[in-house]
Design a protein that fits this description.
The complex is a heterodimer.
Chain A: H1 2-10, H2 16-26, E1 33-42, E2 45-55, E3 59-65, H3 71-78, E4 86-91, E5 94-95, H4 101-106, E6 109-112, H5 124-128, E7 135-136, E8 139-140, H6 142-155, H7 172-182, E9 190-194, H8 202-217, E10 221-225, H9 229-235, E11 238-243, E12 246-252, H10 258-266
Parallel strand pairs in A: 3-10, 3-11, 6-9, 9-10
Antiparallel strand pairs in A: 1-2, 1-4, 4-5, 7-8, 11-12
Chain B: H1 3-18, H2 37-68, H3 76-101, H4 109-126, H5 131-156, H6 160-179, H7 189-196, E1 198-199, H8 210-236, H9 244-266, E2 271-272, H10 273-291, H11 293-303, H12 305-310, H13 315-340, H14 352-362, H15 374-394, H16 398-426
Antiparallel strand pairs in B: 1-2
Helix pairs in contact in B: 2-15, 3-9, 3-10, 3-11, 3-13, 3-14, 3-15, 4-5, 4-6, 4-13, 5-13, 7-13, 8-9, 10-11, 11-13, 14-15, 14-16
Classes of the chains: A alpha/beta, B mainly alpha.
Chain lengths: 280, 427
């Protein structure tokens, strides 16, 4: 499994924080994903205007903003659901086009959508592998997929009774962890999570946040879209604010004050996009 | 009042025992989910009834009509007749259940049956081409019809209800055109044998065709093996399975029914060719729906269309092929029906679509899509067939027959919805 390969890098480095610093010093910091001057209009509505956005490996970037700020639109552009009207998308320095969700997947972008893209009538394994089933001799390789599913769920330490349980029999939190586990199928480099904690209880939210940290420790770049500032501050390394479809400030999650972020979200302060380096 | 704590104790004990993580007492053996008495009873009446309810209903209906017709229903000739009479409905139901699982509907299959039969009859009877050519042309027409409807549903995005309603009129009109409003008959013998033929005496047997019995025995062994494997898999994943005696009982019941059926066929006219066609189709499509990527995607589209789309399922392509497949199976049914009726009539196949749709819903398919099985649709179709045949044997008036069939369809779906609600509430 490619997932295993990514894990191996961090073996011997007990702490995600330390791993990140190793990365910073040994690699020239080319962003995994860089979006430059992205514009997107829906008829008269300007959803995104000249938005810049970067994601690096081993980091969780939170994308925050008020309703209608363009967070979900940006997520959909990253995941290939929407096409930008103008602007550049680069992955590891190369300009790419993301014309469809499956193209995004091929590029290593996995997305958990706000309205959980899961099928209630299928079991956990079938959902994890939906759209990228393993086959052998023209038939589905069910046993192989089940083994892989169990391994991925174990990696995320999620509590699913059985990989053969139908999705309709799972709780909201369990469904969310299946949705997150789904992103690990294939070899993702970037995971986009759109409001992953929106409908969850406190305990379930904690579980999902642990999963998110797990993704970072696996070496992935994580984009977290959320309304909940507590969640954002708990797991993210960097916070990007959008307002009216424009960049309105970048914050280092460990040092930025709650008030400063809130001011950027509500428009009390105006700042543009602050480019790298940040962790210097 | 004293009974209540005791009862509660029974309940909690049952639940504790059914928890897979609880260490099991040695006398409880290797069963992963040992159910308490109350649980077992509840299981029989909820899950088992839901899983095997359709089979129980099927056996009950056979029993009822066998009794009402003084055993005439199960006489060798009549058993053969049921398959000859309803074979084409079953073939249509295979395609229809896939259409319904994906959340569509197809109202045009009756007209397609008529059209493919008419084209085939024109080629073979009117123009004197060989029978095989007639069959091939009919299948080709079916594929074209399917591609036409698939195009409108999948790529233009018109609801299948509208597309196939239009198709129902369109293809009926074409049938009348092709036949110039007159019936064509009879077909040459080899064409007639497709649906009217029997395989008898291949392996000998004096009046009792050994071949039929061998085929049935092999079928039962295969079924038992696959069920056992399935059960072992579920146990390995600590999922609930029915109690072992109940499992064996079900296998034995199926084996007895199939063997009895084969016995009746064997000392009637032998194995009908239709039954062989049907058997191959059922096996093929069971594998396609449960074991292939295409089948998985059909279920996904029916279960959550947007999820399927976002997951990278090529929804348009899958929808297109679903209808091409339906067209193909409608053509097979058209060939079988024209062969059985030994000719082609302008009004052939009317109401077939409704019989096929009813078979799917009686067989447990969900009206909202995402749920259904090929085997379920087959049993549903046979329930309709046995009822019609039984009532005909009893000489019940056509009007009453229609009313009873309508009520059975309504009750079957009501029962299914009631069960689902109860299962949802119990969770």
């Amino acid at each position: 499994m490619p997932v295993e390969a990514v894990r191996d890098e961090t073996i011997g480095v007990p702490d995600g924080e330390q791993a990140r610093q190793t990365m910073t010093t040994t690699t020239t910091r080319t962003p995994l994903l860089a979006m430059r001057q992205i514009c997107k209009r829906f008829n008269a509505v300007e959803a995104l205007v000249d938005v810049d956005f970067e994601v690096y490996a081993h980091e969780v970037v939170a994308l925050v903003g008020d309703n209608g700020a363009g967070k979900s639109t940006l997520a959909k552009v990253i995941s290939g659901v929407l096409q930008p009207d103008s602007g550049l998308i680069e992955m590891e320095g190369e300009t790419v086009a993301i014309p469809s969700p499956s193209a995004a997947h091929d590029l290593g972008v996995a997305t958990v959508f706000q309205d959980l893209a899961l099928c209630d009538n299928l079991d956990v394994t079938a959902n994890l592998f939906l759209g990228r089933e393993m086959t052998g001799r023209a038939l589905l390789a069910d046993a192989q997929m089940e083994d892989a599913a169990k391994k991925i769920l174990r990696d995320l330490s999620s509590r699913i009774p059985s990989v053969r349980t139908q999705l309709r029999d799972l709780s909201a939190g369990q469904r969310q962890s299946v949705a997150i586990a789904r992103t690990l199928i294939g070899s993702p480099r970037i995971v986009v999570l759109d409001e992953p904690t929106a409908s969850l209880s406190v305990a379930q939210t904690a579980e999902v946040l642990t999963h998110i940290q797990g993704l970072r420790d696996l070496g992935l770049g994580v984009v977290l879209i959320s309304h909940n500032m507590n969640d954002v501050r708990a797991v993210s390394d960097r916070i990007e604010v959008l307002r009216h479809g424009r960049n309105n400030g970048s914050f280092d999650a460990s040092s930025a004050s709650y008030e400063a972020i809130l001011a950027a979200i509500t428009g009390a302060t105006h700042q543009g996009y602050r480019s790298v380096p940040r962790f210097a | 009042m004293n009974a209540i704590p005791a009862l509660k104790d029974v309940f909690t004990r049952g639940q504790r025992q059914s928890d897979p993580d609880t260490p099991r007492a040695p006398e409880q053996g290797g069963e992963p989910r040992v159910v308490g008495a109350v649980d077992a009873l509840r299981d029989v009446f909820t899950r088992n009834l839901r899983q095997s309810g359709i089979y129980i209903a099927f056996v009950a209906i056979i029993g009822l009509f066998a009794w009402l017709t003084d055993g005439l229903l199960l006489s060798p000739d009549n058993v053969t007749n049921v398959f000859l009479q309803y074979g084409y409905i079953l073939i249509l139901a295979i395609g229809m259940v896939i259409v319904i699982i994906a959340g569509h509907i197809d109202l045009s299959v009756g007209s397609v049956v008529a059209l493919t039969g008419a084209v085939s009859a024109t080629f073979v009877i009117k123009q004197g081409h060989p029978s095989w050519l007639g069959v091939l042309v009919a299948l080709g027409v079916g594929l074209l019809v399917g591609a036409w409807q698939g195009f409108w549903v999948a790529f233009v995005g018109i609801p299948a209800f509208i597309v196939t309603l239009a198709g129902m009129l369109l293809f009926r009109g074409m049938t009348l055109r092709v036949l110039h409003n007159i019936s064509l008959s009879p077909f040459p013998t080899d064409y007639h044998n497709i649906a009217g033929g029997f395989i008898n005496g291949v392996l000998g047997g004096n009046g009792y065709d050994v071949f039929t019995l061998v085929v049935a025995a092999v079928g039962i062994a295969g079924y038992a093996y696959s069920q056992l494997r399935n059960r072992r898999g579920r146990i390995r994943y600590q999922q609930s399975v029915e109690a072992f005696p109940l499992f064996v009982l079900r296998l034995v019941l199926v084996a007895v029914v199939v063997m009895a059926l084969a016995w009746q066929l064997a000392h009637s006219r032998g194995l009908p060719v239709v039954l062989i066609i049907l058997g191959i189709l059922i096996m093929t499509y069971s594998v396609i729906t449960t074991k292939t990527v295409f089948g998985r995607h059909v279920y996904a589209i029916g279960g959550n269309l947007s999820a399927a789309q976002l997951s990278g399922v090529k929804v348009k392509k899958v929808n297109f092929w679903i209808f091409v497949n339906m067209g193909f199976l409608a053509a097979v049914a058209g060939v079988v029906f024209s062969s059985r009726s030994n000719g082609s009539q302008p009004a052939a196949g009317q109401m077939f679509e409704l019989d096929a749709i009813a078979a799917c819903f009686i067989g447990g398919a969900s009206t909202t899509g995402g749920v259904g099985r090929v085997t379920g649709a087959m049993v549903g179709g046979l329930i309709m067939g046995v009822m019609s045949n039984g009532m005909q044997l009893m000489g019940i008036d056509q009007s009453v027959q229609q009313m009873i069939k309508g009520l059975v369809l309504l009750l079957a779906v009501a029962f299914d919805i009631y069960n689902k609600r109860r299962a949802g509430a119990a969770r």
